[in-house]
Amino acid sequence: MPRVRIAVGCHPHNAKFYDDGLEADLRRMLKDPRVAALGEIGLDYHYDLSPRETQRAVFDRQLELAFVRNVPVQLHIREAHGDCMDMLRARAAAGRMPAGILHCFTGSWESAKVYLDLGLYVSLSGAVTFKNAPKLSEVARNLPEDRILIETDCPYMAPVPLRGQRNEPSFLPHTLAKVAELGGAAPDRMAQTLYDNACRALRIEE
């Protein structure tokens, strides 16, 4: 199997361009062994680059595609957690909730608990190192060890002490160190935990 994996999907910014042809392309790409997830998909009410009703419809279509194809999703949710939770709860109640990851989570612990109950992993970016992000510190302290991930969200969210620079994978140790500190774990142990979680979340065999 390839060592580099990718995700494919229609971001909520581009939901207005989603059609049957694009979905057929996604179905074809999901057959590629390099594709580990369907994403980023979701809702973005900050920029509203696609109408919200369209975002919700396209989000639901891609969630269904992921469920049918049995692939995890990578969720981009910005200023839309209420609608997202309602949609995911409805899917869970119907038994059609795909597995997946809440990408670049910046919400509260109360919101994180809902996503955990839905079976999702919660991924933290360099924002967890920011002094003005106490909510994320609470999330990092409370996330179960087997459901936490970290990421760059490149090129954004570079961690302290590199805040303001273009983010990249080599900056991840700073995020790791903060998450380990907040979780009361040794960095080496946390690194192994995060690696194991990523493999499990994306169904990658070591």
Shape: globular
Discrete helix count: 7
**Helix-residue proportion:** 40-55%
The gyration radius over C-alpha positions equals 17 Å
| Largest β sheet strand count, sense and barrel closure | 6 strands, parallel
One letter per element, helices H and strands E, the order comes to EHEHEHEHEHEHH
Which consecutive residue ranges, at least 5 long each, have pLDDT under 50? Answer: none
Number of extended strands = 6
Secondary-structure-derived class: alpha/beta
Strand order of the largest sheet: 1-2-3-4-5-6
Distance between the termini: 10 Å
Return the average pLDDT rounded to an integer.
97
Percent of residues in beta strands:
5-15%
List keywords for this structure.
14% strand, alpha/beta, 7 helices, six-stranded parallel beta sheet, single chain, 206 residues, globular
